[in-house]
């Protein structure tokens, strides 16, 4: 990120002269999303996934706000992220999804963080480290119930259940990951839940975790003891095809650098991919694919082209989105309502992240983690 400060966005005006784009993150909205999921889970603990720099929105401020809201368990991808999370959540449990790496062993003891063990080889390495260093933090055991990605097989997990006969078995969490939770009636959901439930019986007394964001909405059979929402915290719809139950948490805006007239029949941008079918006015905004906008959502006479909101109205993006610039057709707005220095919104209220992702042929996760690499970053709340 270029730089960050806890100041609100000024609607309609770009107030940050050193950058062309502005990413505003509402930390209170993220906390409210976490609280909404907690209420849905009733008595089940709600953790938070803050990997990938909290899905691109800032690991430290997001972790701090969720800890303030009451979150006690966080999941990160690697040790470097765990170190950042620990700086903001001193007492929380922090699990490292990439597991244990002997090269980073000392950090697990230093930071009091816990690996998610994904194989028997990894478990042996972890046990050797624990024995040598007298580490008492424990670890999560990851079982593959149908994703065929990371995790031990069901057979390996069943055999390891004998470990619980030891007084200090060191397993603090049993977990798996749903492959198709966003499709509520997908048959793999029921198979994974059933297998995980059977294995959980062998690990009596160990907390269990299966549900991700969409898994929370599959009902209590998927909840177990701890849910691990990620995307839903950041405003992505966990129930595709239905109304989004989560609040929007961000606004991505770009400064209008120029408003120009484009005669009928003339083209705009690289490749002459869009041609004005009428005399048009086009606003040029200082935001492009270097800022996280996808070139795939360019306006090249496709029905899926993205929109921007200018002067409170949705206006189509025209021509190819380039590295630094996006062109917006503002012909239907009144004359002189859009001026140099005004703000064009590309993601936010009225332009949900899932719609923007759909126009680019991708998912909201990918859009989120690519945002704001050089924008001015501002936070609300906290």
Give a short synopsis of this structure.
By secondary structure, the protein is of the alpha/beta class.
Overall description:
- The strands form 4 sheets. This protein has a 7-stranded parallel sheet. Strands 12-15-18-17-16-19 form a 6-stranded antiparallel β-barrel. Strands 3-11 form a two-stranded parallel ribbon.
- It has about 375 residues and is of the alpha/beta class.
- It has 2 domains: about 25-235, TIM Barrel (Alpha-Beta Barrel); about 250-380, Beta Barrel (Lyase, Ornithine Decarboxylase, Chain A, domain 1), CATH 2.40.37.10.
- The chain has 11 helices and 20 strands.
- Helix 1 (about 25-40) packs across helix 3 (about 60-70).
SSE arrangement:
Elements: E1 3-5, E2 21-26, H1 27-41, E3 45-46, E4 48-49, H2 51-55, H3 59-69, E5 73-76, H4 79-86, E6 93-96, H5 105-111, E7 114-117, H6 120-133, E8 139-142, H7 154-160, E9 171-175, H8 187-202, E10 208-209, H9 213-216, E11 226-227, E12 250-262, E13 267-268, E14 274-275, E15 280-285, E16 307-310, E17 313-318, E18 326-329, E19 343-347, H10 353-359, H11 364-369, E20 376-380
Parallel strand pairs: 1-20, 2-20, 3-11, 4-5, 5-6, 6-7, 7-8, 8-9, 9-10
Antiparallel strand pairs: 2-12, 12-15, 12-19, 13-14, 15-18, 16-17, 16-19, 17-18
Helix pairs in contact: 1-3
